[in-house]
């Protein structure tokens, strides 16, 4: 290809000149091509790999040089001699004569450079090549990556790094390539090549470690291998990127969302590093946005635009606090350098004025932002202040237009919010317009004393806090805010502050009317989720009066159903009802819905999907934390298996199901403020408080009793609520009740002992556990599928597991690089195990070619298509693993009858077959008692006949199946004999079919009986049925002939098959070729079957001699769709399965072909090792063997 001219210092170093003229030199890289160039070639090849030279990909190049200059410019390079020769010839024909006209060398150089750049620009224009941000160096690396590993264009390289790969005790220096779906390594040292390819989806462990010998190591583990990489220039960047890509792969396995590429990722606005790919920059931006959203609890679609260091003036302590400002599409956020000192969230929808204040020595580059609630925030020490103000102004303009649009839409739809809320019900049940707790608060007279006074003081403390630090979403969040939360949020402020701290307030403000619309759409709809919701409604806090009447139950039903319709991937999961019922107690219905959204989609990710993956991940994190923080207890708990049992219920319900209600809501207060770390801290505190009792437990039951009694004793002495009976099953051993534990002391103790647990550390641990959990789930799914199918097939368990891996890998590969159907349609984790992965016809063709014995290269696709249609029982154009195995099992382990039955069924198209009168040919065609018994067992298809058009396709299939077999000619002869035999049967059967229709005519009965009598005393088979060339003339029994169809059927003995004339008999004529003649003619060119048409002979089925391959082709390109109605197809002609089976049994070559055993293990091994460019990539965790 042509390249932009670049200077080359030494033209001869490591290159061999092959052609030259006064202006241009064509060179080849040393060591490339035949011979390899000896030791010098090996050294050059090694240098190219180690130094990442482009010559590894493009070993040919053309240099430009002026006669008197010492400088050279590379103007083209090529991967092959053919490509570079074309460029060379173009230069000789189009430029050489022109260059000789110039007198000045500078003019020549300018002209050549301009010409080459013009060619490149023209090529880009004609081929619609879009300019991208990737450097030429990175494009070369991408091309090299695809060439080395046979990857298609769709497989995008993200970045590549120099490193060493340890094979045994020997390191191999090379390059690690990280693409969207694969981790690859390539090394070439002194003639020894090493390649490694691992799919991200197959990685079970990815960790960065350090040893005495190797300080920085990345260890990549799969189910079968462990790979170690070292000597990185930037190990942190490499590991972070690998971690991110593996995380995306796990997300794909979990719910397919990873396949939906987010093309709206922000490009970095300034100073974007050009040494990495655009894709790498986008992934970096995605990672930063995720951290930004998690830090400030922002909506899922918020994307960070940029951040900068600055100071914030805090009026409550009269200080300038150093920190960072973050700007995104809809928010301006700030966090101090000291984590707990201050944080701030300013939604742009609340901003009224953004202005640059006057700079001074005390306050350089200040920026003032005012909001609707009359708060003003002063930032200073801003770099690029003008640029920042411009960005904020742009986002403000977009936000304003959005607000106006929403007002117009919602204003035209409803005039009264209250009226809309009350219309949510389709029955007379009243709607809760406020938090249920305020409607069902019961107070006893004796409670109007110290507890109420304490509650009043708490409310006052929060009101004072709001006065000093601001109220609402723009509040300054400081250490004092956290202190107030730990002391307990007042009952009547809980809903407001939960909304604020969780970030749900932002989503609710930006989606007016969304909840009401969702409720209206979901009303009256029924599915699996709504059934489960109905079942659990009366189990949700039944002890609370708010859920002992229809109002509370109806509100709970609406919120859960609306969420199930919003997020079908989650739908409904047990434990959601308990959490939602608590949210409804303290928040209005719509607020409770948005709190549930924040909980399920941001704060507890993947907790409530069908496989509670998030809870299992955090269970693993909790085990790691227990090992670190309570090591003396960890081994004991592991032996008892308690950690996994207790943690699931604790995490899923945020302790609501295991603690008294009034105590558990304090935990929820802290959780909404500080996130998941609160739950981990509290769980560790519970273990730590019971450490001695747990160490003395002998079994898991005893340990559960200890923990259950402890949690039941946790009380909230400040609660103004009447005691609500706790329905958690009290695990007691009839001993003394546990002393009361104050919830506030327990929470504070958890912060003091385990408050050092950081959110970013938890995320790191979650990644590690997510790999383990999802791969464990995948392995469990595989085992369950195999266990279900193993009794239905002759495959062994090991073979089924290998086949499942291949089947799943084919699904994933098509998800990576495209397929004819949507990945979401083919993979649904909520389905039963057997149906979770499904493949479409294109994927099936790939597996058919690799695994099925009938596949034979060029002719495989039509047969694979027929096979797929047969296996696709429900007609959804997808087949699951059970259907796939049922088809493969017949071909690999079925007997001759089953295989032929399958072949026969593939050609019986729905709606075109018809019942056929049984003929009596079978009995004398069977050569052995064993084969006669085989025929007798094949009775389920006796009423289904193959029509003539289907028979033609069956013949074509048979011929194409044998085209690459070692006994090809013998099989062709046998097929020709069987085909001729079946054609004769069809013709004679047609006479019987017509005779049956004339059964009411007494004149024909005696003649029909003569036919039958003759058939019971047949002639020798060689005389009666031989390969034939049929030419069907008009038949008196064809439909549409009117009264002519009433002619008598001539006696069988009068039918002279050898030289019958249509004029004499009115039936089809047959020209016979002797059996010996047929067998001598090895080319089979004499075998020609004309279609048995009633009127026209324009459609023909011919067997032509094409080199060594004989293929049946139709001489007219008639469409398949019209074949059934074509006048050249005889609709009365048909054969049955018994006839087909009996005919095949007469030919030993065919019997041997269909009865020969199939080496299943060898086919599976081959399928795993085959590596093809494009969609059929080698399978799960394939590793290309290291040469040398």
From TrEMBL:
Q: Which residues cross the membrane?
A: none
The answer to whether keyword Cell membrane applies is no
Q: Per the database record, which ranges form the Rab-GAP TBC domain? A: 488-675
Q: Which SUPFAM superfamilies match?
A: EF-hand, Ypt/Rab-GAP domain of gyp1p
Signal peptide range = none
Keywords, ordered alphabetically: GTPase activation, Repeat
SMART domains in the record: GRAM (SM00568), TBC (SM00164)
Does Zinc count among this protein's keywords?
Answer: no
Q: Where is the EF-hand domain?
A: 859-894
Gene Ontology BP term (one): system process
* One GO molecular-function entry: GTPase activator activity
Pfam families, A to Z: GRAM (PF02893), RabGAP-TBC (PF00566)
Name the job this protein performs: May act as a GTPase-activating protein for Rab family protein(s).
- UniProt name for this protein: TBC1 domain family member 9
Origin organism of this chain?
Answer: Sphaeramia orbicularis (orbiculate cardinalfish)
């Amino acid at each position: 290809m042509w390249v932009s001219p670049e200077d080359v210092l030494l033209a001869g170093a490591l290159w061999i000149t092959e052609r030259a003229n006064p202006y241009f030199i064509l060179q080849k890289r040393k060591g490339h091509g035949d011979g390899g160039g000896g030791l010098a070639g090996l050294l050059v090849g090694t240098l190219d790999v180690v130094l990442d030279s482009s010559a590894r990909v493009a070993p040919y190049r053309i240099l430009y040089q002026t006669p008197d200059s010492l400088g050279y410019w590379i103007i083209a390079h090529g991967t092959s001699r053919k490509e570079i020769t074309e460029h060379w010839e173009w230069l000789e024909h189009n430029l050489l004569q022109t260059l000789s006209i110039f007198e000045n060398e500078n003019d020549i150089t300018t002209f050549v450079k301009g010409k080459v750049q013009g060619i490149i620009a023209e090529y880009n224009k004609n081929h619609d090549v879009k300019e991208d941000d990737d450097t030429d160096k990175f494009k070369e690396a991408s091309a090299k990556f695809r060439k080395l590993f046979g990857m298609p264009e769709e497989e995008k390289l993200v970045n590549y790094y120099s490193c060493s790969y340890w094979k045994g005790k020997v390191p191999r220096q090379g390059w690690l390539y990280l693409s969207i779906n694969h981790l690859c390594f390539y090394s070439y040292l002194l003639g020894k090549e090493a390649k490694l390819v691992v799919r991200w989806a197959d990685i079970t462990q990815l960790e960065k470690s350090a040893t005495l010998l190797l300080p920085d190591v990345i260890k990549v583990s799969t189910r079968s291998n462990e790979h170690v990489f070292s000597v990185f220039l930037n190990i942190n960047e490499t590991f972070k990127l690998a971690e991110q890509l593996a995380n995306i792969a796990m997300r794909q396995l979990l719910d397919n969302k990873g396949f939906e590429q987010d093309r709206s990722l922000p490009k970095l606005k300034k100073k974007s590093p050009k040494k990495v790919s655009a894709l790498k920059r986008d992934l970096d931006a995605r990672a930063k946005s995720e951290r930004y959203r998690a830090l400030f609890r922002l909506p899922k679609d918020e994307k960070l635009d940029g951040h900068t260091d600055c100071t914030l003036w805090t009026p409550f302590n009269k200080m300038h606090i150093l920190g960072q400002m973050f700007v995104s599409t809809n928010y301006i956020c700030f966090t101090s350098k000291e984590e707990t000192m201050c944080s701030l969230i300013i939604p742009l929808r609340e901003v009224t004025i953004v202005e640059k204040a006057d700079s001074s020595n005390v306050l350089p580059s200040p920026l003032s932002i005012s909001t609707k609630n009359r708060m003003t925030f002063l930032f200073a020490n801003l770099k690029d202040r003008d640029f920042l103000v411009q960005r904020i102004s742009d986002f403000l303009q977009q936000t304003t237009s959005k607000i106006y649009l929403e007002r117009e839409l919602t204003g035209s739809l409803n005039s009264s919010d209250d009226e809309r809320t009350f219309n949510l019900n389709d029955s007379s049940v009243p709607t809760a317009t406020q938090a249920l707790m305020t409607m069902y608060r019961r107070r006893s007279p004796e409670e109007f004393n110290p507890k109420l006074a304490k509650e009043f003081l708490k409310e006052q403390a929060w009101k004072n806090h709001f006065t000093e630090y601001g109220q609402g979403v723009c509040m300054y969040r400081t250490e004092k805010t956290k202190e107030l939360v730990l002391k307990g949020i007042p009952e009547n402020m809980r809903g407001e502050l939960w909304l604020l701290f969780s970030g749900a307030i932002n989503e609710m403000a930006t989606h007016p009317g969304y909840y009401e619309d969702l409720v209206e759409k979901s009303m009256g709809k029924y599915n699996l989720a709504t059934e489960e919701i109905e079942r659990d409604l009366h189990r949700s806090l039944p002890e609370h009066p708010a859920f002992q009447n229809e109002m509370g139950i109806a509100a709970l039903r609406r919120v859960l159903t609306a969420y199930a319709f919003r997020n079908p991937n989650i739908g409904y999961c047990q434990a959601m009802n308990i959490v939602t019922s608590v949210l409804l107690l303290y928040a209005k219905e719509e607020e409770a819905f948005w709190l549930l959204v924040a909980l399920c989609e941001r704060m507890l990710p993947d907790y409530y999907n069908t496989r509670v993956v998030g809870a299992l991940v955090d269970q693993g994190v909790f085990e790691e934390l227990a090992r670190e923080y309570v090591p003396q207890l960890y081994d004991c708990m592991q032996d008892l298996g308690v950690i996994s049992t207790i943690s699931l219920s604790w995490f899923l319900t945020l302790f609501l199901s295991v603690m008294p209600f009034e105590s558990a809501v304090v935990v929820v207060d802290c959780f909404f403020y500080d996130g998941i770390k609160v739950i981990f801290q509290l769980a560790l505190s519970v273990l730590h408080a019971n450490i001695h009792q747990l160490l003395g437990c002998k079994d898991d039951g005893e340990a559960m009793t200890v923990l259950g009694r402890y949690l039941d004793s946790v009380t909230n002495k400040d609660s103004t609520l009447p005691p609500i009976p706790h329905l958690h099953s009290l695990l007691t051993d009839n001993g003394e009740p546990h002393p009361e534990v104050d919830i506030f002391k327990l929470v504070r103790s958890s912060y003091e002992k385990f408050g050092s647990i950081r959110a970013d550390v938890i995320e790191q641990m979650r990644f590690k556990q997510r790999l383990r959990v999802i791969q464990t789930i995948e392995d469990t799914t595989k085992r369950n599928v195999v266990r279900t199918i193993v009794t239905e097939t002759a495959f062994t368990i090991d073979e089924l597991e290998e086949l499942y891996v291949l089947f799943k890998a084919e699904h994933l590969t098509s998800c990576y690089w495209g397929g004819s159907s949507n990945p979401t349609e083919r993979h649904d984790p909520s389905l039963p195990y057997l149906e979770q992965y499904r493949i479409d016809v294109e994927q099936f063709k790939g597996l058919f070619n690799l695994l099925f014995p009938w596949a034979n290269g060029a002719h495989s696709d039509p047969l694979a298509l027929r096979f797929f249609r047969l296996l696709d029982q429900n007609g959804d154009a997808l087949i699951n693993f059970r259907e796939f195995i049922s088809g493969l099992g017949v071909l690999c382990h079925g007997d001759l009858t089953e295989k032929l039955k399958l072949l026969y069924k593939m050609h019986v198209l729905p709606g075109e077959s018809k019942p056929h009168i049984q003929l009596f040919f079978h009995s004398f065609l069977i050569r052995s008692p064993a084969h006669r018994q085989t025929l007798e067992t094949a009775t389920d298809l006796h009423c289904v006949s193959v029509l003539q058009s289907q028979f033609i396709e069956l013949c074509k299939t048979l011929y194409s199946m044998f085209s690459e077999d070692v006994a090809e000619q013998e099989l062709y002869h046998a097929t020709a004999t069987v085909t001729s035999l079946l054609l004769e049967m069809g013709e004679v059967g047609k006479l019987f079919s017509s005779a049956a229709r004339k059964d009411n005519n007494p004149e024909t009965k005696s003649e029909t009986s003569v036919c039958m009598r003759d058939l019971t005393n047949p002639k020798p088979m060689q005389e009666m049925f031989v390969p034939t060339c049929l030419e069907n003339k008009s038949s008196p029994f064809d439909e549409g002939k009117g009264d002519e169809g009433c002619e008598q059927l001539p006696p069988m003995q009068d039918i002279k098959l050898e030289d019958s004339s249509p004029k004499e008999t009115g039936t089809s004529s047959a020209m016979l070729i002797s059996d010996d003649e047929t067998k001598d003619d090895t080319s089979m060119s004499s075998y020609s079957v004309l279609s048995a048409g009633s009127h026209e002979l324009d459609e023909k089925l011919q067997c032509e001699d094409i080199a060594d391959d004989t293929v049946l082709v139709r001489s007219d390109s008639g469409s398949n769709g019209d074949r059934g109605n074509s006048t050249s197809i005889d609709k009365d002609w048909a054969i049955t399965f018994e006839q087909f089976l009996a005919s095949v049994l007469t030919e030993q070559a065919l019997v041997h072909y269909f009865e020969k055993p199939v080496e299943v293990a060898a086919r599976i091994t081959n399928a795993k090792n085959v590596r093809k460019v494009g969609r059929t990539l080698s399978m799960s965790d394939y590793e290309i063997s290291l040469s040398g």
